[in-house]
Design brief:
Helix content: 40-55%
CATH architecture: 3-Layer(aba) Sandwich
Radius of gyration: 19 Å
CATH superfamily: NAD(P)-binding Rossmann-like Domain
CATH topology: Rossmann fold
Number of helices: 10
Distance between the termini: 43 Å
Strand order of the largest sheet: 3-2-1-4-5-6-7
CATH class: Alpha Beta
Number of strands: 7
Oligomer: single chain
Number of domains: 1
Strand content: 5-15%
Bound molecules: NADPH dihydro-nicotinamide-adenine-dinucleotide phosphate
């Protein structure tokens, strides 16, 4: 009965949420998208393009960004530029935002999506890797957002931050990654309060994703996790719709929301269930 009621409530929420999304609002919207060369970021680029947005794409690999740019133009993007940048370098975020503002004349959306490579394995004591990952997955997000706040405020824009279930509920094999995603929630949820208190018209959407079928995620989790992966194109659309509808938190797939809401009710049971989805054979 409880599950049935939850399903009805979720259905109604999904209905109203979809209803508030107007694709027209994205026509001509100026978007800076990170991690745009592959995976969910690449799919977001194609959706924004087909909605008629003006886009600046960034990631490290120039040749791949060029290909994504060409496809975006074919799909109907009004303007597309790209800038190769490595977010492990602390000077890159500001440069990227300056480039985007100069090319597009301002920003309506900053979509923070990139992540650094990290192994999906037991903690091996590599503190230096955790420090590096914090730079790529967290500090560069803070620096990009900080550089973009003035233009977002001027244009009543939105910050869209892509996070993960492991940024709400810690799961095995993701120690450093999970830490970077929890840090994002702490920083951007606190910043959201402060923007409201200062009556600044910038909206922050935090996106909580489950396992998605990107090449990288499938390769890393193969044989280690027994969970079905959801399609990247659908995840990308959920993020874009949530950002455009100014939803505080997007959960994709939808049932993650209920997992997160109930996470502290039965901690022992929750942890047993979580561990049962992971394959761990001791060495
Ligand atoms: P991918 O690994 O497929 O893509 C990562 C993107 O980040 C690529 O465009 C890559 O391009 C770029 N990137 C990698 N390293 C750097 C760097 N040092 N500087 C700048 N850009 C970099 O990731 P996903 O699409 O799977 O993930 C996208 C988002 O979704 C992430 O925030 C992730 O945490 C989140 N997420 C994904 C899940 C999944 O199962 N896939 C689950 C939960 C959350 P390049 O190599 O050209 O630099």
């Amino acid at each position: 009965k409880v599950l049935c009621a939850a399903g009805i409530v979720a259905g109604l929420l999904a209905f109203f949420w979809k209803d508030t999304f107007d694709p027209e609002t994205l026509s001509g919207a100026r978007v800076l998208l990170t991690g745009a060369s592959a995976g969910i970021g690449e799919q977001m680029a194609y959706h924004y393009a087909s909605f008629g947005a003006e886009i600046v794409l960034t990631a490290r690999r120039e040749a791949v960004l060029q290909k994504v740019m060409k496809k975006c133009l074919k799909l109907g993007a009004k303007k597309v530029f790209y800038i190769p940048a490595d977010m492990s370098s602390s000077s890159e975020p500001e440069k990227v935002v300056q480039f985007a503002v100069q090319k597009l004349g301002g920003l309506d959306y900053l979509v923070l999506n990139h992540i650094g490579m990290t192994p999906f394995q037991m903690w091996d004591g590599d503190v230096e890797h955790t420090r590096w990952l914090m730079q790529v997955n967290f500090f560069s997000y803070v620096a990009l957002a900080t550089a973009a706040l003035p233009t977002l405020e001027e244009n009543k824009g939105s910050l869209v931050v892509v996070s993960s279930l492991t940024g709400k509920i810690p799961t095995p094999f993701t120690t450093s990654y999970s830490a970077t995603k929890f840090a994002l929630d702490g920083f951007f949820s606190s910043l959201r309060h402060e923007l409201t208190m200062q009556k600044k018209n910038i909206f922050i959407t935090l996106c909580i994703l489950g396992l998605i079928d990107t090449d990288m995620a499938l390769e890393k989790t193969r044989g280690k996790v027994y969970i079905a992966a959801s399609p990247a194109a659908e995840a990308a659309l959920a993020i874009i719709q949530g950002g455009a509808s100014r939803v505080q938190e997007v959960f994709y797939p939808w049932w993650l929301e209920y997992m997160c809401r109930f996470r502290d009710w039965f901690p022992n049971h929750r942890d047993q269930v979580l561990q049962s989805y992971y394959n761990y054979s001791s060495p």
